[in-house]
Amino acid sequence: MNSELGEKFTFFFKKNMPDAFVFALVLTLIVAVSAAFIVKVNFFEILDAWYQGFWLLLEFGMQMVLLIVTGYTIALSPYFLKQINILCKYIKNPIQVYFVVTLFGFLVSMISWGWIVAAAALGRSLADRIKGVNYPFLIACTYFSNNSWVTGLSSSIPLLLNTKDNYLLKSGIIESTISTTETLGSYLNITVILCYLFLGTLIMMMIRPKNSEGRELKDYLINSKNLSKEITIAQEAQSHKLPFKALSDKLNNNFPLTMIIFLLGLIYTVRYFILNGFDLNLNIMIFIFLMLGLIMHKSPLRFSIAMRRSSSNVSSILFQFPFYAGIMGIMIYTGLGESLSHALVSVSSLKTFPFFSFVLGGIVNFAIPSGGGEFAVIGPSVLEAVKTIGSSYTPDEIISMISRASLSIAYGETLTNLLQPFYLLLILPIMGSGTNLQARDIMGYLVIPFIVFFIIYSIIITYVPF
Fold it and tell me: CA geometry: angle at 23 spanning 22 and 24, to 5°?
């Protein structure tokens, strides 16, 4: 029954959901019209806000591209492929593939949201080896598993609250930093982690499609015959060699040179963590991936070939990010985001403020698909409202209320990713490489997990002790 319902949702999305870029364009118009009617700004103010926003995510977009490319380069290395072959001795059927990829995705995403590229690479490799895997559903498993990042070490809102001299402190909204033990280490967050690891994995097993006919990886490959005959990275590197001894070939395939650069990178990385603690931001993560990819391919030339192959499918990020940033600009510069937050928190009470914060985070996420960016827009007004609601409480109790509201926004922001394809751009360049797969082939499988976790979140954030 559950699998049949998942298939019906998938058919609905295939029939009605446009390409992810079209989704961004339609969303742009919806947000622009909302700004005109809700905050009463004129056409040119909306246009200026849209243009200003276009450049807000340039750094983030480039980080996403490098994260995907460097992560996938590691997956193309001989060492990674060898480990996949060993793993395939124990994984024999599609159910085991779904289970392993989903659980692995949950675990690595709790270390950092960007590590989902490792789960994507694992899923792609397993689907290429194990028969009977429904590939769109496996991509949905991978995408869903990235949701656990909000409970882990890279959760942007809890990290912001614990950052010295952050804008909430400077504006007087909070009086001191709030330790991550109050947020990520709370009973509330631990309960959510357990729900993802156990219930999240169980849900995907329950809704798995019974039929994979016509939906395996090989069925979606655009040129399956040509792709299957693609030469290895080592063979391509060998083909570049001159028929006589040459210094250029020695440098291109020089392992000692690779090792020296890797050791320099390793020394810097160790020193970085000693000086900064476990601050696993995107920049240091990309740097680590670069160094690992370099040493795992053993030569500069092989690494260059792997990077070129990994870069072949990231065009969607390059042109879609500015449009989502434009939507973000409308939300920020017209005051639409702040207006929405005021409207929702105005009807909140001591018992309902976590739920309304959760709903607000989910709604605004469609227009600002960035946890930190979204919180910058709606967070201050929500936290001010929480302080007003809890004005008769002790400072420690208010800190707990602020922490609960902040986590609620973060949970809502992450959950509605299941209904919009923005962060699918992180996975499709790897899992969809060489295929004709689109977001509409995948998103339908995520409706049931969304509904179930919406209910679970609503209960947890309201009733679980902090």
Answer: 90
